[in-house]
Amino acid sequence: MALDRFDRFRDLLIHAPALGFWLDVSRIRFDEGFFERMAPRIQDALRRMADLEAGAVANPDEQRRVGHYWLRAPALAPTPEIRGDIERTLARVLAFASDIHAAHLRPERAARFRRLLVVGIGGSALGPQLAAAALGSPADRMVPHFFDNTDPDGFDRVLDAIGDDLGATLAVIISKSGGTKETRNGMLALEAAYRRLGLTLGAHAVAVTGEDSALDRYATENGFLARFPMWDWVGGRTSELSAVGLLPAALQGLDIQALLAGAADMDDLTRTAEPLENPAALLALAWYSATGGAGRKDMVILPYKDRLELFSRYLQQLVMESLGKQHDLDGREVWQGIAVYGNKGSTDQHAYVQQLRDGVDNFFATFIEVLRDHAPGRRHDEVEPGVTAGDYLSGFLQGTRSALTDRGRESITVTIEAMGPRALGMLIALYERAVGLYAWLVNINAYHQPGVEAGKKAAQEVISLQGQVLAALSRHPGRAMTVQEVAAAAGADDPEPVFWILRRLAANPERGVVREVPPGGSIFDATYRITG
Ligand SMILES: O=P(O)(O)OC[C@H]1O[C@](O)(CO)[C@@H](O)[C@@H]1O
């Protein structure tokens, strides 16, 4: 049994020595004849990927090219203009970062920029956050901070952490569309914070955005230090190796050339036509086998490395925004997707791994192993005679993998030699391509996200309704009104959203809405009035 298992491990293992990379899918139960059956489909997916890389329109409903692979191999770009754009932008990113580091570009009052505050969300934040956490060190040129929401308390926390250094903080505002409300709100909160110090946003800010977007215009009108492009052929969730990720990383002082080189190396490896030698194809096939090609199991990401803690969050967007689709490419209703979650091992061992082993079998795990314990030259202190903390980390990984296998729970293991920019570039490129190939295996468009619009539209309606609610209360200053009365006065058919709006406004006394619950009454007997 153990020998059979080792044979299977040896047969399925992909090892790319030049990259310091291994992929093990031997703990996925591919059924009899799986690879033969899937051969035409994976070959078709690989062909479509080659067409995409050659510049075909791969996002049919938005009629867009999908070009994130060109970012690390500009010579592959389908036109000289695109190649030139990529090369010029990379040169500008490096030059801008170097000007900031050398204090050739300075803040309004401080001697130099010491911190950077990235304002963005989704694909315009997750990659930069991942790179900052995975690669940062005390030797960084600038300390990174992030606004990735429209949570005022979140803004306060970050601004409090920056403290007196705000005047030495460079704001990097990132939005492909340039119209995302969370990002706009973060930028405006930051602008107000600079203003309180008598400073202007523009003198401390740089934008990464699509040409002529609302953010692009705002940056021009407000004299931002620089503007970097975000092209329509790069999707938000695959934008880490465009200016979106490269600019913050370069400012932080990370080696962005190594990041790009790692991705380019992985791209080379994953263009291989033989699926059993192509890690992205094998990963996509493993996902297909584990989930029945129908998202029947969740992808649990367990990186045994603190620096990769955000990788599962990054993959959550990459995988779920790409694969979570109602319709396939032929318009059939398919409700596709694979749910992704995870934090890090061995920490998760003490949280949800109990369920993974003993509970519902609705997942497959992906272990991410980093062979080198820490940077060269660091001490390998013993925790027991002859045993280090790193030995335990490795032991826990193998132990959990075996414990899952013993219970028939499937797993994949991705192994890299050492953590660093090159390895991160490889991991990003690996998953980008695996997601694209998987999408074609199940015949969906990985490159659009029609579903996210519904929530944005509904949020805008709530904001309008709030305006009507406040106007209705203001027309009757001091008068106490029930939710139903407010709803009627606001012209709202449904009192429930009005209830939600009033409940929140009343919890924020500065907003001037007072709630009174009559003695013995319930929250639904409450009245609301406006003060001041
Ligand atoms: O970069 P933008 O345009 O601000 O978008 C941020 C994120 O919002 C989304 O469009 C989803 O709402 C993501 O696809 C994207 O990464």
TrEMBL record:
Any single biological process term in GO: gluconeogenesis
GO MF terms, alphabetically ordered: carbohydrate derivative binding; glucose-6-phosphate isomerase activity; monosaccharide binding
Localization: Cytoplasm
Record-annotated active site: E321, H350, K456
Residue stretches making up the SIS domain: 105-269
InterPro entries cross-referenced by the UniProt entry: G6P_Isomerase, Phosphoglucose_isomerase_CS, SIS_dom, SIS_dom_sf, SIS_PGI_1, SIS_PGI_2
Cited SUPFAM superfamilies: SIS domain
Enzyme class: isomerase
Pathway where it operates: Carbohydrate degradation; glycolysis; D-glyceraldehyde 3-phosphate and glycerone phosphate from D-glucose: step 2/4; Carbohydrate biosynthesis; gluconeogenesis
Signal peptide location: none
E.C. code: 5.3.1.9
Pfam families in the record: PGI
Catalysed reactions listed for this entry: alpha-D-glucose 6-phosphate = beta-D-fructose 6-phosphate
GO cellular component term of the entry, any: cytosol
Swiss-Prot/TrEMBL keywords: Cytoplasm, Gluconeogenesis, Glycolysis, Isomerase
Record-linked PROSITE patterns: P_GLUCOSE_ISOMERASE_2, P_GLUCOSE_ISOMERASE_3, SIS
Family under the similarity heading: Belongs to the GPI family.
General function of this protein: Catalyzes the reversible isomerization of glucose-6-phosphate to fructose-6-phosphate.
HAMAP family per the UniProt record, alphabetical: G6P_isomerase (MF_00473)
Name of the featured protein: Glucose-6-phosphate isomerase
Protein species of origin: Chondromyces crocatus
